[in-house]
Amino acid sequence: MEFQNEEELLYKARKAEGMKFHEIDLTGRLNNPNSKGHLGQIIEESFFGYEVNSKAEADFIELGIELKVTPVKELKNGQLSAKERLVLNIIDFHKEVQKSFEESSFWKKNESLLLMFYKWIPDVPRGEYQILKSHLHRFSEADLQIIRNDWSIIVSKINAGQAHLISEGDTAYLGACTKGANRNSLRTQPFNDLPAMQRAYSLKNSYMTTLARKVITNEHLVSIADAIELQEKSIGQLLSDRFKPYQGKALNWIARELGIYLNTKSKSFLQIFVSALLGVKGTSLEDIEEFSKANINFKTVRLEPNGLPREHMSFRNIDFFEWVDEDWASSWLRSHFEETKYLFVVFEYRETKTENPNRKLYFKGVSLWNMPMEEIEGRLKDFWLQVEGILKEGVVLNKTKRGVANNLPGPRSNGLCHVRPKGRDGDDHTPLPDGQSIAKQAFWIDRTYIGEILKEV
DNA sequence: GCATGATCATGC
DNA sequence: GCATGATCATGC
């Protein structure tokens, strides 16, 4: 079927809204177990009636529009979320470095995307999935500035001979995710003899989630930067600049200046502080567009006069059954640190607690950080494997004077991260795969490592 | 002084 | 009720 213009195409695409895949499939692809997951092909073939292809040109060539069929899911709290990142075209490391953004394979193929969102439901046959929304997506100017910057980051890594070290965490909206049957899907790279994992451009899960919520459930977010500002600065630079006027100032001075009440003990302290400094007082941080799309999380850090935090930094509690069920490549830990950026909001004490129990807190600055790939595939991986081994062999629990000791890797065991308890009390237990029960444990990053990252702030 | 196990406070 | 961000407290 040929479409004369995009209105015609969109009119047709919208007719799919509300339909289930078994109502669309005319060629029996749904029942073919070898045609795994290719719901997009059913749409191409049975709904739009054109031959399935994998050409470099866009799917609707005449219109320069690329078709993408992509799942969303419902979270436990009822909110809509992208089920996965949107995987775009494969990157040819050799060719891409010779191009400008405008000539890039990314832009050539994905400038206009016809997105068809369908709802994925666990344990339901694929034919029952329903198309929720057809949407013609064009990048806003502000998004485009960030994506240009992301594209340059990816290309400069290839130029630096580091195609094998690319990580999704390096960029904000546009990622370069691994794509291939397995870890042996390797390709050569132009400036290094080391082979690199095959990679494709992708729009990050967080970007797709934000987009789905906007398009499907009309949720609106607050933006902190416009296209003009983003033309000159990355999000990281922009944030440092916004926070700069307050650097080195005492917290109570800042609070007075901004007309906010800050109780450092309160859990909403960080929200209030950051949103006030960014000029969007009262907005919760997850409702800030740029943070939501780039999957930026927040952590407060309080440095002691020696430049180290007093405490290690805790993350989510560990589900030990999940740990042994997954393998490293698909583990929560790996994906989390590959896909998440952290904005550390750093404060410092200038006196020790013994010198002055009522010491003041000063704002030191912010730092946008993601765990480098070398670290993820190095110490983090070793740690993950070590824990997996202990869980499979059985955890050794020993009652001591101070509670129950275990043989999971503790602080300083690798300089990066460790396992430590985090629960209501010592009786707040969780089951282990070996049948025992242990006080709830969390994943922690060592304070020395945090201190190291924040040295330059 | 720090590792290490334990616990608090808050918000959903 | 529980996860999460944060902090306490003590023995080595």
What are the defining features of this structure?
457 residues; alpha+beta; 32% helix; DNA-binding
The quaternary organization reads as single chain
Structural class: alpha+beta
Instruction: Summarize the main sheet.
Output: 4 strands, mixed
SS summary, helix count: 16
Helix % is: 25-40%
Radius of gyration: 24 Å
Task: Compute the average pLDDT.
Answer: 89
Word description of this protein:
With 457 residues, the chain is an alpha+beta fold. It has helices spanning 6-14, 21-24, 39-47, 93-96, 105-110, 141-159, 205-217, 227-232, 235-243, 251-258, 269-277, 289-294, 320-325, 332-339, 373-393, 447-453; strands at residues 66-74, 80-82, 86-90, 112-119, 130-138, 174-178, 186-189, 192-197, 199-203, 296-303, 313-317, 341-349, 361-369, 397-400, 403-406, 417-421, 429-431, 437-439, 441-445. The protein contains 16 helices and 19 strands. It has a 4-stranded mixed sheet, with helices on both faces. The chain has a 3-stranded antiparallel sheet with strand order 3-9-6. Strands 10-12-13 form a 3-stranded mixed sheet. A hairpin with a 2-residue loop joins strand 14 (397-400) and strand 15 (403-406). Helix 14 packs antiparallel against helix 15 (373-393). It is globular, with a radius of gyration of 24 Å. 30% of the residues are buried. The mean pLDDT is 89.
